[in-house]
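re: ur msg from earlier - yeah i can do the glutamic acid complex, just paste it... oh wait u already did. ok heres what im feeding in:
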Amino acid sequence: MRNEPLIIAATSDFAGKVRGKAFPADEFDRRLKRGVGWTPTNVQITCFDAIAESPFGALGDLVLIPDPGTLIKVDFEDEHPAEQFVFGDILKTDGEPWKCCTRSILKAALKRLEDVAGLHMLGAFEHEFQFLDQEGSASGAYTAAGFRAARDFGETLFSVAANAGLNPDTFMKEYGTSQYEVTIGPSMGLTVADHAAILRELVLITAERLGRRASFTPLRDPAGVGNGVHIHMSFQDREGKPVTYDADGPHQLGEPAAKFVAGVLKYLDRILAITAPSVVSYTRLTPHRWSAAFNNLGFRDREAAVRICPVSEISDIAAADQFNIEFRAGDAAASPYLALAAIIHAGVQGIEEDLPCPEATHEDLSLLSPEDLDARGLQRLPQSLEEALDRFSADTTVAKWFPDGFAEVYTLHKKGELAFLKDKTEAEICKAYEIAY
Ligand code: GLU
Ligand code: MG
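and the outut:
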């Protein structure tokens, strides 16, 4: 029997999940105008597939319009049909972006970066994940044996990612049990998040096809390290000239980049509910896990919320082109579109407020008293999703960065996720996220 090839029109939603509706591939051109129908309350489906309180109820209609630039066809050339999906924007039926469309929210943030500072962003997401079907000796940190245990996976992933136009960069056995890391080359603006969303799907699809199981859960085992999503960013002016690096600037940061970093760190406690939005995210964001527990700037320090990445003098790439900052307080429970939008808005706010460049930290901040931290303008980040959500929902500046009503719907979504986990043990909560992501 012949299969009718279907393409999934997809969105990356508040749960950081890819959801969508499929249509026949033959109808692609028509669907670029008509889209597929979408239901407002879908945005309240949590990562556990329970529906959080929805202000929309059973009412309303939206359209998800595919963006042809994100069409992906993954053909493993085995007995299964090719996987086809395309990301898009959720619009109201009058064509205006819907307030809860994560991709439209990122577009608005990028526009603000351009309007306020004349800057364009070059960036790339770095992802860590764990195999759920691999334990034991092949798990050694950074080992060749660990790499070989997933060579088949890595080589297949690189092939499909390259075919998808992603520029796969490195693949390695990370430190944690059965943990791996994959990096991809940088791209501009909206494509940074498109590529992150596509990469996550490709990892999951490749694992499925090879009979393996991968999870991006922020923290699988509280006794181990977490799975981070690190977002690398640099800026170009309107002519495409890199402006992040200044040999004479504070920590070699150019002026707009320094203010951007200051804004991200000032508002970090209030955007964490977006960039690290699961319950287990807050166990990952504790000292000595090489994640981020404070709103600090690190000069080549891996326990920093924002790290200035090294520039190699022997590279064939010029310093100004290599130089980038890395946001480390994020994970894959967040939609890449929302996480990047929140970071950009916080950074642009820093530019608007003309904030001074923060000092970089070099020491173990967990040894400092709250008074010492305070004296240096540092703070311990929120230690639970509830706390992060309270900071987010109470902040009127942050609420204004997003469309009217977004903050309320997002907060209700996360409260629904919390309610689902009420009365569960830590082990049960970890398990639930491991399955969800
Ligand atoms: N696994 C660490 C995290 O949760 C990051 C380790 C590293 O790549 O520096 O972010
Ligand atoms: Mg890593």
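cool cool. Residues 255-275 form the longest helix (21 residues). ping me if u need the other ligands too
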